[in-house]
Amino acid sequence: MAQPKTLGDSLRERGVSRRGFLKFCAATTSMMALPPTMVPTVAAALAKARRPSVIWLSFQECTGCTESLTRSFSPTVEDLIFDVISLDYHHTLQAASGEAAEKARSEAIRTNYGNYLVVVDGSLPGPDANPGFSTSAGVPNLQILNETVAGAKAVVCVGTCAAFGGLPAAAPNPTGAIPVHEVVKDKPLINISGCPPVPMVITGVLAQFLTFGKPPDLDQYNRPLAFFGQSIHDRCYRRPFYDKGLFAESFDDEGARKGWCLYRLGCKGPMTYNACATMKWNGGTSWPVEAGHGCLGCAEPSFWDAGSFYKALSVPTVPVGRTLAAAGAAGAAIGAAAAALARHRQRLASTEREPVRVEELEQKQ
Amino acid sequence: MTSVLTETLMNRLSSTPVTAEGAGDDRPGPGNALPLLNEIQHALTRFVETGERTVIDLTSIPFAPADQQRLLEALGRGEVEATINALGPTRVWETAFPGVWLVDHRNTESARLILQVEVTDVPDILKAQPEDVADGMAALQERIAVLAQETGA
Fold first, then answer.
1. Where do the domains of chain B lie?
2. What pLDDT is stored for residue A67 in this prediction?
3. What CATH number does the domain located at A7-228 have?
4. Per-residue pLDDT averaged across A312-321, rounded?
5. Which of A23, A39, A238 faces B87 most closely, judged by CB atoms?
């Protein structure tokens, strides 16, 4: 097989000037959450990079993650698909269907054995579950995953379902759904959680692979630290209100109108690690907290079973008043304690599998 | 006629006072605009003293809704403005403070890719790139050859 063209060559052939290429690199560097000083390094690496083959597997999912990816704007999805990666198999996006589609997958595996990336969205019925709960072309998800991952360079789990089980694994988990990491043990694995994940984070991680040829630094849940290194709460523009003890108490009170902290309305920002606060959604237009609703914590394990979205994480044990918060650091300490408490509560909830009741959702705090 | 009417309406609209909720007295200071202005000041000092240039990626800063606008207004407009057409428009302008530039990269659909503050004499993206100059030289040579043939010189 002929060596695929480098990204630098293919852009040049399309008449993109060096200036255009540098702009592309500046945007990509920002997308990877790297500082602008890295632009020359990224430019040098990208000019020589060759498009990796990507096989995208969709299991028990809602297609929301693909919807999210196709709404990434930087670079545009066309650039991403045709210049940056070679998307060789994707149920929803590919033109081929039936046997031709499955052939594309086996061919991509054969030609790029050991070098292709596997992207998975959705969880899958575990080895003890009825394999018939989720199949494509009559083949159970687990078998497809094992076959496809065998020759992969790395596996990227897109979305909370693939990363942690997500909605299909929520109590009582009727399909015996498990996340990908419970099956794939011997390959580099990256989790990009979120329901769906921020589109720029998906493209950012793929661009990272392309640029540096290796997975980024990861946290304890195998999530890239560049995007999941800080909590929503710590990056939230409403954080100063929390530190001052200014909270919205209902969705239509004075505090809500003035844009105060949504902690008491059940915001899961303190225990949620994701990039929403800076990358935002819909091309940087806004994000849940800016729209006036607390964070649901969708990027964290078992978020669906962690109690009501509208129940405050925990009531601060120390009174958070204007006087106290003037000390600044006190607010941060309380935030950290709340996050620790929340994680503990979440673990409890996930072991007890406490179902969320409608009354809880409707109950005012 | 229509334009006069529209103009009058627009004038009336812009003179109607609009108070944005959240911009009241309870706001805890000016958000991230002030710290960034301080950072820019330090960067400018470094540039004057050591010639070190600084780039700040504004797209990675958590801004409250009106915060970024406030920063851009504080920086204002200076003497230079330029537009680059490469993979969509890029607007570059010097702020009211010489040596402090804003670079606004947009894609072909005019959606913002990245917004940067650059503290330097001339932002790199404005300079002609060696690869493009080489291509340009070849194109110029070809143009001369064609022209010479046409005029029979």
1. 27-122, 127-153
2. 86
3. 3.40.50.700
4. 55
5. A23
